Amino acid sequence: MTKDIVKAFLSHERVITENTDSARELYNQGRYGKLTKDGAVQLSLIEAYYLMEKERVEIIDGRNKPVPPEKLMKKSSKIEPSFWIRHCVYRDIRERGYIIKTALKFGADFRIYDRGVKPGEDHARWIVYPVHEAEHLTWYEFAAKNRVAHSTKKRLLIAVVDDEEDVSYWECRWLRP
User: Fold this and answer.
1) Among this protein's residues, is 169 annotated catalytic?
2) What's the pLDDT tens digit per position in 108-160?
3) What's 37's domain CATH number?
4) Short-list 117, 85, 121, 90, CA closest to 103
5) Looking at the 3D structure of the chain, how many domains does it have?
Protein backbone atom coordinates (compact mmCIF):
# COMPACT_ATOMS: atom_id res chain seq x y z
CA MET A 1 0.00 0.00 0.00
CA THR A 2 1.47 3.36 -0.99
CA LYS A 3 0.78 6.42 1.06
CA ASP A 4 -0.59 9.52 -0.65
CA ILE A 5 1.70 12.53 -0.86
CA VAL A 6 -0.03 15.41 0.90
CA LYS A 7 0.15 18.85 -0.67
CA ALA A 8 1.03 21.60 1.79
CA PHE A 9 1.62 25.33 1.52
CA LEU A 10 4.50 27.27 3.01
CA SER A 11 3.28 30.32 4.89
CA HIS A 12 5.96 32.22 6.82
CA GLU A 13 7.06 29.90 9.65
CA ARG A 14 4.33 27.31 9.21
CA VAL A 15 3.21 24.80 6.64
CA ILE A 16 -0.53 24.19 6.14
CA THR A 17 -1.80 21.08 4.36
CA GLU A 18 -4.79 20.86 2.13
CA ASN A 19 -8.01 19.80 3.79
CA THR A 20 -7.88 16.12 2.78
CA ASP A 21 -8.32 12.72 4.34
CA SER A 22 -4.62 11.99 3.66
CA ALA A 23 -3.59 15.09 5.61
CA ARG A 24 -5.79 14.13 8.55
CA GLU A 25 -4.35 10.59 8.39
CA LEU A 26 -0.86 12.10 8.93
CA TYR A 27 -2.21 13.71 12.07
CA ASN A 28 -4.23 10.71 13.28
CA GLN A 29 -1.53 8.10 12.68
CA GLY A 30 1.60 9.97 13.75
CA ARG A 31 0.30 13.10 15.46
CA TYR A 32 2.15 15.32 13.02
CA GLY A 33 1.14 18.96 13.40
CA LYS A 34 -2.17 20.10 14.77
CA LEU A 35 -5.62 20.13 13.24
CA THR A 36 -7.00 23.48 12.14
CA LYS A 37 -10.66 24.47 12.45
CA ASP A 38 -11.20 23.90 8.73
CA GLY A 39 -9.80 20.33 8.80
CA ALA A 40 -6.31 20.98 7.45
CA VAL A 41 -3.14 20.22 9.41
CA GLN A 42 -0.69 22.91 10.49
CA LEU A 43 2.88 21.62 10.56
CA SER A 44 5.96 23.18 12.09
CA LEU A 45 8.93 23.67 9.78
CA ILE A 46 10.71 20.74 11.42
CA GLU A 47 7.74 18.40 10.94
CA ALA A 48 7.32 19.56 7.34
CA TYR A 49 10.99 19.03 6.54
CA TYR A 50 10.93 15.54 8.06
CA LEU A 51 7.76 14.59 6.16
CA MET A 52 9.28 16.02 2.99
CA GLU A 53 12.34 13.76 3.50
CA LYS A 54 9.98 10.81 3.93
CA GLU A 55 8.14 11.80 0.73
CA ARG A 56 4.88 12.21 2.62
CA VAL A 57 4.36 15.92 1.81
CA GLU A 58 5.03 18.18 -1.14
CA ILE A 59 5.44 21.79 -0.12
CA ILE A 60 4.26 24.59 -2.39
CA ASP A 61 5.33 28.23 -2.10
CA GLY A 62 3.27 31.42 -2.56
CA ARG A 63 3.89 31.33 -6.34
CA ASN A 64 2.41 27.81 -6.47
CA LYS A 65 5.83 26.23 -7.15
CA PRO A 66 7.29 23.21 -5.33
CA VAL A 67 9.77 24.03 -2.57
CA PRO A 68 12.85 21.78 -2.81
CA PRO A 69 14.22 20.37 0.47
CA GLU A 70 17.39 22.47 0.30
CA LYS A 71 15.34 25.68 -0.01
CA LEU A 72 13.18 24.73 2.98
CA MET A 73 16.35 23.90 4.96
CA LYS A 74 17.89 27.28 4.08
CA LYS A 75 14.72 29.22 4.98
CA SER A 76 14.24 27.25 8.21
CA SER A 77 17.87 27.78 9.24
CA LYS A 78 17.50 31.55 8.79
CA ILE A 79 14.44 31.56 11.05
CA GLU A 80 15.97 29.15 13.54
CA PRO A 81 19.80 28.92 13.55
CA SER A 82 19.83 25.56 15.37
CA PHE A 83 17.36 24.02 12.90
CA TRP A 84 19.72 21.33 11.59
CA ILE A 85 20.67 20.11 15.09
CA ARG A 86 17.02 20.06 16.11
CA HIS A 87 16.10 18.22 12.90
CA CYS A 88 18.73 15.52 13.56
CA VAL A 89 17.18 14.90 16.99
CA TYR A 90 13.60 15.07 15.69
CA ARG A 91 14.40 12.57 12.91
CA ASP A 92 16.22 10.20 15.29
CA ILE A 93 13.36 10.17 17.82
CA ARG A 94 10.74 9.61 15.08
CA GLU A 95 12.83 6.80 13.56
CA ARG A 96 12.88 5.13 17.00
CA GLY A 97 9.06 5.06 17.01
CA TYR A 98 8.29 7.88 19.43
CA ILE A 99 6.01 10.87 18.97
CA ILE A 100 7.92 14.10 19.44
CA LYS A 101 6.28 17.52 19.71
CA THR A 102 7.48 21.03 20.50
CA ALA A 103 7.77 21.94 24.18
CA LEU A 104 8.03 25.72 24.13
CA LYS A 105 5.50 26.09 26.94
CA PHE A 106 7.78 23.91 29.08
CA GLY A 107 10.84 25.96 28.20
CA ALA A 108 12.37 23.10 26.21
CA ASP A 109 12.79 22.27 22.54
CA PHE A 110 10.76 19.06 22.44
CA ARG A 111 8.66 16.70 24.50
CA ILE A 112 8.63 12.97 23.82
CA TYR A 113 5.83 10.50 24.49
CA ASP A 114 6.34 6.83 25.30
CA ARG A 115 5.86 4.49 22.36
CA GLY A 116 2.18 3.90 21.74
CA VAL A 117 1.11 7.01 23.67
CA LYS A 118 -0.42 9.88 21.72
CA PRO A 119 -0.57 13.48 22.94
CA GLY A 120 -3.82 14.02 24.77
CA GLU A 121 -3.98 10.39 25.94
CA ASP A 122 -1.24 10.83 28.54
CA HIS A 123 1.59 13.19 29.40
CA ALA A 124 4.98 13.26 27.74
CA ARG A 125 7.71 11.38 29.60
CA TRP A 126 10.72 13.48 28.57
CA ILE A 127 11.67 17.00 27.60
CA VAL A 128 14.61 17.27 25.24
CA TYR A 129 17.31 19.86 24.64
CA PRO A 130 19.29 19.24 21.43
CA VAL A 131 22.90 20.47 21.41
CA HIS A 132 25.86 20.05 19.09
CA GLU A 133 28.79 18.17 20.60
CA ALA A 134 31.00 21.27 20.32
CA GLU A 135 28.57 23.49 22.28
CA HIS A 136 29.25 24.47 25.84
CA LEU A 137 26.62 24.23 28.54
CA THR A 138 27.28 25.99 31.82
CA TRP A 139 26.31 24.45 35.14
CA TYR A 140 23.71 27.21 35.52
CA GLU A 141 22.16 26.36 32.14
CA PHE A 142 22.23 22.66 32.96
CA ALA A 143 20.64 23.24 36.39
CA ALA A 144 17.93 25.42 34.83
CA LYS A 145 17.07 22.73 32.29
CA ASN A 146 16.99 20.05 34.97
CA ARG A 147 14.80 22.23 37.18
CA VAL A 148 12.31 22.76 34.34
CA ALA A 149 12.12 19.00 33.75
CA HIS A 150 11.67 18.32 37.46
CA SER A 151 8.98 21.00 37.90
CA THR A 152 7.01 19.65 34.91
CA LYS A 153 7.34 16.05 36.17
CA LYS A 154 9.26 14.99 33.10
CA ARG A 155 12.65 13.42 32.60
CA LEU A 156 15.40 15.54 31.09
CA LEU A 157 17.18 14.35 27.95
CA ILE A 158 20.17 16.19 26.58
CA ALA A 159 20.46 15.11 22.94
CA VAL A 160 24.03 15.51 21.71
CA VAL A 161 24.48 15.62 17.93
CA ASP A 162 27.92 14.96 16.46
CA ASP A 163 29.33 15.98 13.08
CA GLU A 164 28.17 12.70 11.52
CA GLU A 165 24.57 13.50 12.62
CA ASP A 166 24.56 10.67 15.17
CA VAL A 167 22.62 11.47 18.33
CA SER A 168 23.54 10.38 21.86
CA TYR A 169 21.13 10.91 24.74
CA TRP A 170 21.95 11.75 28.33
CA GLU A 171 19.09 11.40 30.80
CA CYS A 172 19.39 13.51 33.92
CA ARG A 173 17.31 13.37 37.10
CA TRP A 174 17.27 14.80 40.60
CA LEU A 175 18.27 12.25 43.22
CA ARG A 176 17.88 12.40 46.97
CA PRO A 177 20.74 10.69 48.79
Assistant:
1) no
2) 899 999 988 888 889 999 999 999 999 988 999 888 888 888 888 899 999 99
3) 3.40.1170.20
4) 90
5) 2
